[in-house]
Amino acid sequence: MKVCVIGAGVIGCATAYQLARQGCEVQLIDAAQAPGLQTSHANGAQLSYSYVEPFASPATLRALPGLLLSRHSAVRFRPRWDWRQWAWGLQFLRACTARQSLSGTAQLLQLAQSSRVVLAQWMRDEHWDFGFAENGKLVLCPTADSLRHQERQVRLQAGMGCTQEVLGVQECLDKEPALRGATALQFAGGVWTRDECVGDPHRLCLALVESVRRMGGTVSLGVQAQGFVRRGERIAALRTGVGDIAADAFVLAAGPRSPQLAAPLGLRLPIEPIKGYSITVPFRSGAVRPRASVTDLGRKTVFAPLGGQLRVAAMAEVGAMGLAVPARRVQAMVEAVAQTYPDLCVLNDPATWAGLRPATPTSVPIVGRWRGSNLYLNVGHGALGLTLAAGSAAALSQHVLQPA
Ligand SMILES: Cc1cc2nc3c(=O)[nH]c(=O)nc-3n(C[C@H](O)[C@H](O)[C@H](O)COP(=O)(O)OP(=O)(O)OC[C@H]3O[C@@H](n4cnc5c(N)ncnc54)[C@H](O)[C@@H]3O)c2cc1C
């Protein structure tokens, strides 16, 4: 079976790899000159298997006015003259119920647990070097209220297979001694999850692509998908800048650009870009490095030790389109590092990055077949694409390979 996978971000690379493992003749295409240069390039590096709570929840709904109106909020809304954005917004508001949040948590945890198992199997077979480490994660809650919310979530998730501990302030500092020197860090306690992991998303994309090639797959870079050639209910070919590509099946994995490619087919994908930023800074030589990843919920910022560097990711700008990195965003992340880990990093020349999370209103990705056609969707992984890539690839390959 020949399968054309559109998009070589972490989702498309993982899908191509899984399909090649299962004996498909794979062609992976991307408009960029290398894999993993868009949203999967320098994200928060978290394999966040237990922190999957959907963004849409009753708590988010209650906090929304404050989040949107505060000048210092880490969440922003960038309105556009586009009815699809407003339709997405309405779907998001409708998803802010306890019932939807619970069902989303359960679905995402299941996909995350499958991802952990599938990625472990891949790593055993391939021995990739992408900075993977099971270093644990500490989530710091700024207020007693947010700690209570996390406690409820921990109790709920305990029944769904997660092992997490709620800690007081001193216990958090014992868990991650590198936080002891922090200035201006205010928190009421935290949640510790021992088996959370980190990995470099870009290096994972490169490793997946190398394995796809080794298994006989084709990786075509610098190839822009322009649309689909339809024959009745089926897709006959993908139209690209270098000619049509015929295949038995097509997988759309173009991240935040997927809705534009799907729209001419009459397929409206409810995916909205949520922009975020990262900086990557080297550790000073001799500095005592953090062991764990830390999420400061007050700043909505994640700090991840990744080899000899600290990756810091922050901000959620709903609806922002471009990839510019304003100096004030970089400055805010640099200050967050200086205040959280004084003297840990060299901060004068951070590597900066912006990406667009391809978010669905419920935070649950769309993985499956489009109607009865030979087009398959692996899109909408929002803030969790690195975490969910392996499980989504395994699930998608079952749809592709099951007899029609
Ligand atoms: C600030 C930030 C922090 C994050 N932190 C984490 C984290 O810690 N853990 C986690 O699990 N997730 C995290 N995420 C989310 C994660 O990065 C995304 O969910 C994931 O990268 C999405 O992958 P993707 O393959 O769907 O999209 P992309 O990586 O954007 O890949 C899509 C690919 O399609 C290609 N493409 C698009 N249009 C076309 C076309 N017409 N023709 C050909 N090719 C095309 C693009 O060039 C691109 O390479 C974070 C995101 C952000 C922004």
Gross morphology is globular
Under the CATH scheme, the architecture is 3-Layer(bba) Sandwich
The amount of beta strand, in percent, is 25-35%
Indicate the radius of gyration in whole angstroms. Answer: 21 Å
Q: Quick check: average pLDDT? A: 96
Low-confidence stretches: none
CATH class: Alpha Beta
**What fold name stands as the CATH topology?**
FAD/NAD(P)-binding domain
- Please, how many domains? 1
Query: Span from first to last CA?
Result: 13 Å
Protein architecture, described:
- The chain is α/β, with parallel strands linked by helices and 404 residues long.
- Helix content is 34%, strand content 26%.
- The strands form 4 sheets. Strands 4, 5, 6, 7, 14, 15, 16, 17 and 18 form a 9-stranded mixed beta sheet that branches. Strands 9-2-1-13-20-19 form a 6-stranded mixed beta sheet. Strands 10-11-12 form a 3-stranded antiparallel beta sheet, with no helix packed on it.
- The longest helix is centred in the first third of the chain and has 29 residues.
- It starts with a strand and ends with a helix.
- The model has no long low-confidence stretch (mean pLDDT 96).
- The protein binds flavin-adenine dinucleotide.
- The site of flavin-adenine dinucleotide has 42 residues, from α1, β2, β14, β18 and α10.
